[in-house]
Amino acid sequence: MIDPDRVLAYMHGFYGYGTYAAKYWFIGLEEGGATSGSDLTRRIDVWHTLGGLEIEDLYAFHEALGSVSWFGATAKRQATWARLVRAAIDQQSAARSGFAVAAAWRGVARATFSCGSATACLSLCICRH
User: Fold this and answer.
1) What residues contact 15, with CB distance under 8 A and at least 6 apart?
2) Is 33 left (phi over 0), alpha (psi -120 to 50) or beta?
3) Which pLDDT value is given to residue 127?
4) Average pLDDT of the residues of the chain
5) What letter does residue 21 receive in the DSSP assignment?
């Protein structure tokens, strides 16, 4: 069973990926990704194991989660993140083609929302308890 205190800590303490010092912030309603109670428990446990930081490194978090199929040369394209990568590319005056987004996804997405990047991807979560 999931620990209610950990759920509350995650709800109130995890905001997303990147860094507060980022030049660009993308703020959405929630991360998504957990399709079951066990998925949610796993995400919360990984977050807690990594130190329960407000902002995590996107790749490091997903590597610890065992979900790295979104990164690397054979990465699957994740629709929401791809749009954010495209927006980051646009803001940096790079090529705006679909190819550029695909290349960025494979080679840059890992770094786009890392702790040392110029981009933060944060969630706004309105939760009642």
Assistant:
1) 54, 55, 122, 123
2) left
3) 47
4) 76
5) T
Q: Nearest-5° angle of CA 9, CA 39, CA 127?
A: 40
SS3 91: helix
98-122 pLDDT tens trace: 555 565 555 555 555 565 566 666 6
Six token digits for residue 92: 């940096």
Exposure letters 40-55 (e unless 16+ CB within 10 A, then b): ebbbbbbbeeeeeeeb
Task: Find the DSSP H helices in 50-112.
Answer: 58-65, 79-91, 98-107, 109-112
**Burial of 100 by CB count in 10 Å (0-12 exposed, 13-18 middle, 19+ buried)?**
middle
Q: Is 66 left (phi over 0), alpha (psi -120 to 50) or beta?
A: left
Q: What angle do CA 70, 74, 75 make, to 5 degrees?
A: 15
Give me the pLDDT at residue 42, please: 92
Q: Can you tell me which residue has the tokens 């705006």?
A: 96
